[in-house]
Design brief:
The complex is a heterodimer of chains A (113) and B (114). Chain A contains no helices and eleven strands. With 113 residues, chain A is mostly beta strands. In chain A, strands 2, 4, 5, 6, 9, 10 and 11 form a seven-stranded mixed beta sheet that branches. In chain A, strand 5 (43-50) and strand 6 (53-57) form a beta hairpin. Chain B contains no helices and eleven strands. Chain B is globular. The chains are: A mainly beta (113), B mainly beta (114). Chain A binds chain B through residues 4, 33, 35, 42-45, 48, 55-56, 58, 91, 93, 98-107, and chain B through 30-31, 33, 35, 40-45, 48, 50, 88, 90, 92, 99-107.
């Protein structure tokens, strides 16, 4: 069964460093999403991406965050200068159409020290 | 601020019992999804409901979308230990501005005891 894959599974970084989280969505999907889940809290929407541009972003997704689809398969989330409060599980998801939910990857655990 | 409140937060039941989990909001959603999440993994999509009053069945799981598309329920019949997990509802809300928003519920942690 096709799946969304995320790498790395765990990323440890120092505060102020840049990190890039990588995702390979399901190949025929057109809509891509990033979510985050701080430990013990609910899943929060960060950004959605369609047709090579951001469709929607939440208030969490500030200037420190950016997304890119550098080629036909990868979808990346970059955090320019990490803060302690960026520590969380980051989930990538993809779907065939909006409003139909998403297929989630297993997540990347980001630990900012 | 839009919120999706789930109840109960925690539920521990014996195998074979029935249960219902609720997902409520004061906001209208164009669609609503239910997910199940295991520890250390991403949410797994169970179902999407779109039409007010819609009922969908997935084996022993029955999902209902409220008539006004503000709430939903998940009913599990004859729970099994394999049903243990975190159940999440998530809503998609479209705005007249053309923007949309995805909101996850607070989650219901279900434990089914043998």
């Amino acid at each position: 069964e096709p799946e969304v894959t995320q790498t790395p599974s765990h990323q440890v970084t120092q505060m102020g460093q840049e990190v890039i989280l990588r995702c390979v969505p399901i190949s025929n999907h057109l809509y891509f999403y990033w979510y985050r889940q701080i430990l013990g809290q609910k899943v929060e929407f960060l950004v959605s991406f369609y047709n090579n541009e951001i469709s929607e972003k939440s208030e969490i997704f500030d200037d420190q965050f950016s997304v890119e689809r550098p080629d036909g398969s990868n979808f990346t989330l970059k955090i320019r200068s990490t803060k302690l409060e960026d520590s969380a599980m980051y989930f990538c998801a993809s779907s065939n159409s909006p409003g139909q939910g998403g297929y989630f990857g297993a997540g990347t655990r980001l630990s900012v020290l | 601020t839009q919120l999706l409140e789930q109840s109960p937060q925690f539920l521990s039941i014996q195998e074979g019992e029935n249960l219902t989990v609720y997902c409520n909001s004061s906001s209208v959603f164009s669609s609503l999804q239910w997910y199940r999440q295991e520890p250390g993994e991403g949410p797994v999509l169970l179902v999407t409901v779109v039409t007010g009053g819609e009922v969908k069945k997935l084996k022993r799981l029955t999902f209902q979308f409220g008539d006004a598309r503000k709430d939903s329920s998940l009913h599990i019949t004859a729970a099994q230990t394999g049903d243990t997990g975190l159940y999440l509802c998530a809503g998609e809300a479209f705005f007249t501005s053309g923007t949309y928003k995805y909101i996850f519920g607070t989650g219901t942690r279900l434990k089914v005891l043998a």
